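Example record for the data management plan.
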Amino acid sequence: MKKVVSIALALAVAAGLAANTAATGAAAATQRLILEFVQGSELSVAEADGTRLVYGADLREGDPIPVGGIIRTGADTSAELRLDPNGSIMKLAAQGTFSVKNLATVSSPQNAFTLISGKIRAVLARDSGQSYTFSTATAVLAVRGTEFLLSFLPGRDASVFVKSGAVEFEKLDAEGKAVATIGVSASQQANAFASDFRAQPATPAEIAIFNRQNQFQKLDPRSVPGHEPDGPPPQGDSPTPMLPPPAGSGALKNGAPGGNGPGVPGGKM
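Corresponding structural encoding:
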């Protein structure tokens, strides 16, 4: 009888340990940020412990980018990223530096990223129960289920163009404290360096520039949960560099300081 009881207790303890392990694993489960596609060859990731991973040697398409990792793209290289399993996608333009600060867990639905310099386009899953922040040294975006382009050139440009959805755009002072917050909705743009910090409508020509120059090569925005198809599949980056825009035009065209839209200078996006 004692033997039977001992076996029963052992089984109960084992079942309890298995349940605790499963629960712990679920709590620790995170989104993964996957490097899906690289156009070019000059890309690296600096891990939080200082390890440097080089694309083509230590890092390949399909590999996850760890929390704390800093992605850098060269002058002729862009990278497409996907949050798994939530389905959100991003594209880091050439000459960009982008940091992964936090990825959502079961207990914490917050994804946080920092654009240190360059441009990033994001198409974020709707109704995922997760939230996202994209920060620069002078501005913070708080978003849910939005498609936008964020551009940051230190000392010159901290701007956003929203294609669909809406964002909360916060302007920071030199100490990193919020000094103003505005809402930016679909087809609007704003620049934290503008003398008039407010959302302004993008012109049809500026929207066409966004659509032409910021295409995904591999990933399809229409596959992101909650984003309805609104046109043909992406056809890739525009092969023709833009001509310089007229003086005084918005920063969506040239990234000039004092404009109100995200810079889209000539070159690879």
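Summary line stored alongside the record: DSSP finds three helices and 17 strands in the chain.
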